[in-house]
Design a protein that fits this description.
Order of helices and strands: HHEHEEHEHEEEHEHEEHEHEEHEEE
Mean pLDDT: 77
Low-confidence stretches: 46-56, 86-98
Organism: Coemansia aciculifera
Structural class: alpha/beta
Distance between the termini: 74 Å
Radius of gyration: 24 Å
Strand order of the largest sheet: 2-3-1-4-10-11
Shape: globular
Helix content: 25-40%
Number of helices: 10
Largest sheet: 6 strands, mixed
Protein name: GTP-binding protein rbg1
């Protein structure tokens, strides 16, 4: 009886053996779809009555959640305890942190939850180690810090990215612009607004038939690949920004450091000496896409000590009111805004108005 792992291995071997060209595109498309379905089986835990797991359900606090992922002993725990003051067992040997240790980092007035995700290692996606639970927590993060050892960054980076890709986490990517709708009848209708260079109607059919979908509308608005199409059909992918934290720069030369700076999305640091943390935090803030809004009670000065922190794409006046108290909107008449989101200071705005970083808002209630 071959297990899911064996089946995955078989398909991966078959794909490695197959040459990529026009003639094999259909075959490869089918294999990729089969592979995605098997991997989904692995990701959804078996429904068996087991005892409660330990240390892996983390209550959300703060406005955003940053997960630290990396091989054992790359200095994740040192970095976290320096940033937050939470102490995760630090050692020079591999595999010390076995449960998620949450800490809270205060930055620019925002509370950001920091999670140490125990060493994701090769095979985590196959449920080895505590892999599967780590991955479930990783999927809920707003940002992932991939902590790498600067002496062996690229080998580790490739392995971790592959592990995360395999469980449906896409780093620093936008969701593909593909609109996919299942229908009851009418066959497969495929349209595209851009020329498709990686995929054609036959490949799309092969993938859909593997999913037993006979009728659907598929509209491509980008030059997509087979993998993009499978991601959209599976529908359980998460797109998370990531920063590569290259630790232990105290062990390399200045020339090597210049090279390291050329890696995209990377920040070199030394957790042990606390070097370059300000750049790391600045980048974190940037990638989290947060805005700070200051409140101004009527007739008083703005309160700059405790900003209301919102996501940039969800920063309307209505969301600002909800963040303070659910009841405010019922009595909301209009808002007065000072800052970069308005032409005049102050400007009278309605609840749909979108706020920008460091705006000051005063809420007027209905009389």
């Amino acid at each position: 009886m071959s297990t899911t792992y064996d089946k995955i291995k078989e398909i991966e071997t078959e794909m490695a053996r197959t040459q990529k060209n026009k003639a094999t595109a259909y075959h490869l498309g089918t294999l990729k779809a089969k592979l995605a379905k098997l991997k989904r089986e692995l990701m959804t835990p078996a429904k068996s009555g087991g005892g409660p797991g330990e240390g892996f359900d983390v209550a959300g606090t703060g406005v955003a959640r940053v997960g630290f992922v990396g091989f054992p002993s790359v200095g994740k725990s040192t970095l976290m305890s320096k940033l937050t003051g939470t102490f995760s067992e630090v050692s020079e040997i591999e595999f010390t942190t076995l449960t998620t240790i949450p800490g809270v980092l205060q930055y620019k007035g925002a509370k950001i939850q920091i999670l140490d995700l125990p060493g994701i290692i090769e095979g985590a996606k196959d449920g080895k180690g505590r892999g599967r639970q780590v991955i479930a927590v990783a999927r809920t993060c707003s940002l992932i810090f991939l902590v790498l050892d600067v002496l062996k960054p690229l080998t580790h980076k490739a392995v971790i990215e592959r592990e995360l890709e395999a469980v449906g986490i896409r780093l620093n990517k936008e969701p593909p612009k593909i609109v996919f709708r299942k229908k009851d009848k009418g066959g497969i209708n495929m349209t595209s607004t851009v020329p498709l260079t990686n995929i054609d109607q036959d490949v799309v059919r092969s993938v859909l038939s593997e999913y037993r979908i006979a009728s659907a509308d598929v509209s491509f608005r980008c030059d997509a690949t087979v993998d993009d199409l499978i991601d959209v059909i599976e529908g359980n992918r998460v797109y998370i920004p990531a920063v590569y934290v290259l630790n232990k720069i105290d062990q390399i030369s200045i020339e090597e450091l210049d090279l390291v700076y050329k890696i995209p999305h990377a920040v070199p640091i030394s957790a042990h000496h606390g070097w370059n943390f300000d750049e790391l935090l600045e980048k974190m803030w940037d990638y989290l896409n947060l805005v700070r809004i200051y409140t101004k009670p009527k007739g008083q000065l703005p309160d700059y000590s405790a900003p209301v922190v919102l996501k940039r794409d969800r920063a309307s006046v209505a969301e600002f009111c909800d963040a303070i108290h659910r009841g405010i909107l019922k009595e909301f008449s209009h808002g007065l805004v000072w800052g970069s989101s308005v032409k005049h200071n102050p400007q009278k705005v309605g609840k749909e108005h979108v706020l920008l970083d460091e705006d000051v808002v005063s809420i007027a209630k209905k009389k």
